[in-house]
Amino acid sequence: MRVVIQRVSLASVTIGGVLKSAIEKGFMVLLGIEEADNQEDVEYLCQKLTKLRVFADENNAMNLDINQIGGDFLVVSQFTLHAMTKKGNRPSFIKAARPEHAIPLYELFLKRLAEVSGRKVESGEFGADMQVELINDGPVTILIDTKD
After folding, report:
1. What CATH number does residue 130 fall under?
2. At what angle do helices 99-117 and 39-51 cross, to 10 degrees?
3. Average pLDDT of the residues in 8-19
């Protein structure tokens, strides 16, 4: 599993002109699932995201986690995170999981993240054409790959 995490002061997902989800401060999480991913990857990422200390403390040092600042999560599925671009100019997405494998892991990720973190977890819609808006706070953007 691969995630791009952005520390945000505001983020939202709109589908077909209708607001689907929105959060204020917290993490915008773009989640890419590949065929080799399983429940262990879900558990690892949920623990990591809950404990990741990238929010500013009273000294403006990145020292607080999402619980300490009262933040929330907005998770959006993003198969393009597994784009292979070594050959040619058209990315290959062969490593990205097929929906029959990815959807159950995506749904498990949403459920486990809420359970592990105790925070609100909003989401996009798997496979939908979504418009994502966010204000990246910092900017802080972190890539985590469970296979690295």
Report:
1. 3.50.80.10
2. 40
3. 97
Which tokens hold the place of 100? 């029959």
Token duo for residue 97: 């999981």
DSSP, collapsed to helix, strand or coil, labels residue 25 as: coil
Catalogue the active-site residues: 78-80
Predicted confidence (pLDDT) at residue 132 exceeds the cutoff of 90: yes
Residue 98 to residues 33, 75, 80, 110: CA-CA distances in angstroms?
Answer: 9, 18, 12, 18
pLDDT of residue 54: 97
The three-class DSSP label of residue 108 is helix
CB 26 within 8 A of CB 119: yes
Range of the domain at 124: 2-145
| Interatomic CA distance for residues 27 and 63, integer angstroms | 15
